[in-house]
């Protein structure tokens, strides 16, 4: 236990400090700042090492949260980093990007604000990196097995690192110019700087993982060639097919999928593209979808100098406190204020998009109506239509599954009724030697689930190739823990 009187002495929950809004909207540097070491120690000390730590159940990775909280409270940061990395390959990613279901399950949350688990996690990781302690973990033995990982998002990276450390030869195929997937091209720098990603990739390369970028599997290299070259293949392409909105005016110029916008912006900031094709400067922007992707579009549009930004959500505004039908330790649906929401823009709820209006084939407005429940469905309420001016519209409505063209057609891989790659409880697809991990098989989900699935899939592949494995397997695709030993 970190402190026998932890939350009794320190009742206040102190979250991550942020740069002032007026300063941070002028650049794309990370909004969050490092937390003072003394404050961090006190916040970690609020964790009471509960007899039944429900935070473990809330975390798909099974992070040893009470253990590293106690070590942080004692000032033993190096040991805390060892505990953290025992279950999580990339805590510097999850500490920045995960919505922290562990905090919803924190026992302290019954009658007090939960422990700042996510903040402690990222500080452990950042302290290790700043001290130069993120050294390569080299395999103690090497096998003659070769594995291809398709996709370099969090699931693919986790699987690749685990299998490299197990002694296999691993090549990660990425169609973009640099590895990282949506971590690089979908997440704005103000949420996670790309130096954080590059530091971890450098560690992986030093360990022996090979990255083959600019290679589209199914086009630049056929799946049959992968089968000849490798003993196993892991599909970790993510769920990248965006959900569309087929309403009148959808084909007007100026209506874009959110990822078109975010990827292009990240490429320009990184110097991979000279100029913006989709620029919000001086324009009225409307974002459909109130989730993380919508917030990323909001923060980006504000930094580009948009005249106004309106975010539309079809559902009701969530409550600010845990509702009765989602009692602890469930993960409640609550009204969330992300850093981008602090910077400006208007949020509108119960708004159904009726159509997009415009002239000369260019969007000029979004017709919305209030929604009401009719026959169990949320439908537009007649007579409540209004037009919101819009020069740019971004569809941030989620994703329907992985892309099927090329790779899946050549591999004859089956899909389930949700549009994801079909697999069994050990991540195997119907194609011998082919496995699927992360959003490609699970559907759109959280980064922490992607890493957990990548680790588990690596254990399954290791056992398939070697007959046994010592790699940990946090979860099965069915969300139930499985033993791979």
TrEMBL record:
Keyword Oxidoreductase tagged: yes
The enzyme's E.C. designation: 1.4.1.13
Gene Ontology molecular functions: glutamate synthase (NADPH) activity; iron-sulfur cluster binding; oxidoreductase activity, acting on the CH-NH2 group of donors, NAD or NADP as acceptor
Domain FAD/NAD(P)-binding, first and last residues per copy: 146-454
Functional pathway: Amino-acid biosynthesis
Aminoacyl-tRNA synthetase is among the record's keywords: no
Domain Dihydroprymidine dehydrogenase stretches: 25-129
One GO term (biological process): glutamate biosynthetic process
Family annotation (InterPro entries): DPD_II, FAD/NAD-bd_sf, FAD/NAD-binding_dom, Glut_synth_ssu1, Glutamate_Synthase, Helical_ferredxn
Keywords: Amino-acid biosynthesis, Glutamate biosynthesis, Oxidoreductase
Recorded name of the encoding gene: gltD_2
Protein name: Glutamate synthase subunit beta
